[in-house]
Amino acid sequence: MSEYQKYEDKIVLITGGAGCVGSNLTRRIAELNAKKVIVLDNLSSAYEWNIPDNENIEFVQGDILDDAALKRVFKEKPDYVFHLAAHFANQNSVDNPEKDLMVNGIGILKVLQYAQLIGVERFVYSSSGCGVYGLDSKMPFEEHDISISLHTPYQVTKLLGELYTNYFHNLYDLPIVNARFFNVFGPGEVPGKYRNVIPNFFYWALTGQALPITGDGSETRDWTYVEDIVNGLLSMGVRKEAIGEAINLGSGQDQKVIDMAEKVNELAGNEAGIKFTPRRDWDAKTQLLSSIEKAEGILSYKPKIEFEDGLEKTYQWFVDNWDNIEKSAEFGSKSQKKVN
């Protein structure tokens, strides 16, 4: 029997369930015959069309800072909570530090309080492997080697979220797991001003624009396909050994930014090429690489999707959903190139 069968006939709450990781996780848990998957999302950086249309999925448009919304979803007494909602992105947090603290600090505190009151079976928090490790952390990043010398409010509040989950585990025995994501990409992430580089690059490539690399392109990232992230989260929800732990979810491999950009242009048939721009002030980490030994040991986690295969799947999602993506992306197309 698959361990994922433990989700059958259960009620699962996914905050931020309209985003990339959330929508893919929602679909998988719905397909595992959960009794109900409740998606709570305020659609500040996601879209309702991105939520799977299954009979056992209920969408609630609401904010994690709003007690009325939280009372509505926790009244259902969810067995599992996956807390993915966040004020996302480093630059967004630099531009809006107070909002970042409210959503990523007060927001998780509120969700934890409700989860503790009803006694959930598991609370899985989406932290950031790219955030909680610093320049003083050794690569590949191991879970014990976090930093308190960080460079953006987003990194600070992601670590704060882990401190709060640990507090609820230590004081109330709340069964928590901290999932440290590394550079997630894949179907479901709509491009925009504060979004990740891969969806933005696909958008610009498909509209005939040069891809802007901040730096010289030799920088590396540990890009991890969303399907692998979802598999790790599902195991975190049911493995007893994961309770109270922080666990990296990455690919365990690093890729050069310039190689990624060239592959995106190749897939999109973009002849505009690449342009180089100055690195942002906060962008101090030129190399990122996770250690996934702990995930392998506790979760039997093993990434299955090769990086180039993941890029091809993401490109196909862009093509298949282009009308919705073009309408939803924060920045408008600068060319009339037709996507076939």
Record keyword descriptors for this entry.
340 residues; seven-stranded parallel β-sheet; alpha/beta; 12 helices; two-stranded parallel ribbon; 40% helix
Multimeric state: single chain
Work out the helix count.
Answer: 12
Low-confidence blocks of residues: 332-338
The helix fraction, in percent, is 25-40%
Strand content: 15-25%
| Secondary structural class | alpha/beta
Amino-to-carboxy terminus distance? 42 Å
Sketch the topology as an H/E string, one letter per element. Answer: EHEEHEHHEHHEEHEEEHEEHEHHH
- What does the overall shape look like? globular
According to DSSP, the number of beta strands is: 13
Mean pLDDT: 95
Rg is 19 Å
Strand order of the largest sheet: 3-2-1-4-5-6-11
Largest sheet: 7 strands, parallel
Question: Could you describe the 3D structure shown?
Answer:
The structure is a single chain. The protein has 340 residues and is α/β, with parallel strands linked by helices. 40% of the residues lie in helices and 16% in strands. The protein is built from twelve helices and 13 strands. The protein has a seven-stranded parallel sheet, sandwiched between helices. A two-stranded parallel ribbon has the order 7-10. Strand 1, helix 1 and strand 2 form a beta-alpha-beta unit. The protein starts with 10 loop residues before the first strand and ends in a 12-residue tail after the last helix. Mean pLDDT is 95; it is low at 332-338.
